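ERR on first pass: missing label on line 2. Operator R.T. fixed the label and resubmitted. Corrected input:
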Amino acid sequence: MADINITERQAGDVTILDLDGKVTIGEGSVALRSTIRRVLGEGKTKLLLNLGRVGYIDSSGIGELVSSFTAVNKEGGTLKLLNLTEKIQDLLAITKLLTVFDVYEDEGEALSSFN
Amino acid sequence: MTEQTEFILPSVIESVDMAAAKAESFARAIGLADDAIYAIDLAVRESVANAVKHGNKFDKDKDVEVTFADTGSGLEITVRDYGTGFSIEDIPDPTDRENLLKTNGRGILFMRSFMDEVDWDNPDGGGLMVKMVKNR
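pass 2 clean. output:
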């Protein structure tokens, strides 16, 4: 079984990626990177990562979130985070990345923020 | 009585999951709480990943040696590689503003944040060994 499943949904011009599983060194991080590259390649630059079903993330996974953020910015787009678990919130606080990412608990609010 | 286990892993990414699974099993067997097990799992993942990637540089002729010991007051873990070692002071602080958007360099921060003690040593025979303790 794959470490992570990533499902894509569209809400207007915002692409929502629902992540389900682990974002860790190896398969999980690679899957996230591949998906981000693919959607950017399709011209989708308003991205919302739903992390509510990410049960585990390590420093490699956190690095991949940063890499995704930077890649989207380079394309003139915006990447935001939705539904952080307590553990992910802790890790982003420890790394001071809560100062970098725009984070939401409500999907509707997150979608509105893109406009 | 001190319970102890040791094992040797190859320098491949799959060793990270293997070491984490063994750590969780050992920590549960000695009765540690879920919060401590999460911390141990994360620290073992980060330390073994460092040993495989930065220490042994994926050299299949170099092993990663791991030990777990129940000290009574907690769990002591060592992870050793056979790379060229490094000075911990040379690792940039990933929370400095200029490093925030770097894609790596946060593993040691997580190890220090989640474990009660973390120390590095250059043992006889070369390589680097990290010793970590999680108290009960």
